[in-house]
Amino acid sequence: MTASRTDWFVHDRFGMFVHFGLYSVAARHEWVQNYERIEAADYARYARFFDPDLFDARALARQAREAGARYVVLTAKHHEGFCLWDTATTPFNAAEACGRDLVREYVDALRAEGLRVGLYFSLLDWSHPQYTIDRHHPQRGAADVVEQNAGRDMAVYRTYLHAQVRELLTGYGPLDYLFFDFTEPAEEDGLPGKSPEDWDAETLLAMCRELQPDMIVNDRLGIPADLVTPEQYQPVRPFERDGVPLVWEACQTINGSWGYHRDNHDSKSAALLVRMLARSVALGGNLLLNVGPTGRGEIAPRDAALLSEVGEWMTRHADAVRGAGASRFTAPSGVVYTQRGDRLYAHLFDWPFGLLHLPDLADRVDFARFLDDGSEVLFENIPADQEAFNLQPAAPEPGTLTLKLPVQPPSVALPVIELYLRASS
Ligand code: GLC
Question: When comparing pLDDT for 423 and 208, which is higher?
Answer without folding.
Answer: 208
